[in-house]
Amino acid sequence: MLGGLYYVFAKQVLKSIFADMMSERNLQYQDAMTKLEAILERVDDTNVGIDELASQVQEATELLKTCRRILTETEQSVRVALDSLDGEFKEKDNG
């Protein structure tokens, strides 16, 4: 019974912490994705010159790196939080 209540409390705390952290990352990610979509629309235009195409590909590459970094950081944060939570549950069970 106590374990279930502890889990609910821990879940709420984690949700609050991640909400703040994720909102900034989410905005960065959404901004990068919006820019990528705009690049794709410009590149789809058959009248794009080779110089502009090269420039767009370079910008898209940087945006993709940003998206990958944000996703990796988010995944690591979630893993750390879950590992921490698992460790606390094991301590409660053993203690």
List key phrases describing it.
95 residues; mainly alpha; 0% strand
Describe this structure in words.
- The chain is mostly helical and 95 residues long.
- The chain has one domain (2-94).
- It has helices at 2-44, 50-94.
- Helix 1 packs antiparallel against helix 2 (50-94).
- It is rod-shaped.
- The mean pLDDT is 81.
Arithmetic mean pLDDT: 81
Shape from CA axes? rod-shaped
> Helix count, per DSSP?
2
- How do the SSEs run, as a string of H and E? HH
Unreliable runs, pLDDT <50, ≥5 residues? none
What is the end-to-end distance? 15 Å
Q: Classify the beta-strand content into a percent band.
A: under 5%
By DSSP, the count of extended strands is: 0
Q: What is the SS-derived class?
A: mainly alpha
Biggest beta-sheet profile = none
Return Rg in Å.
Answer: 21 Å
Helix amount: over 70%
Number of domain units? 1
Write the layout of secondary structure elements.
Blueprint: H1 2-44, H2 50-94
Helix pairs in contact: 1-2
Provide a quick synopsis of the model.
This protein is mainly alpha-helical and 95 residues long. It has helices spanning 2-44, 50-94. The longest helix is centred in the last third of the chain and has 45 residues, at 50-94.
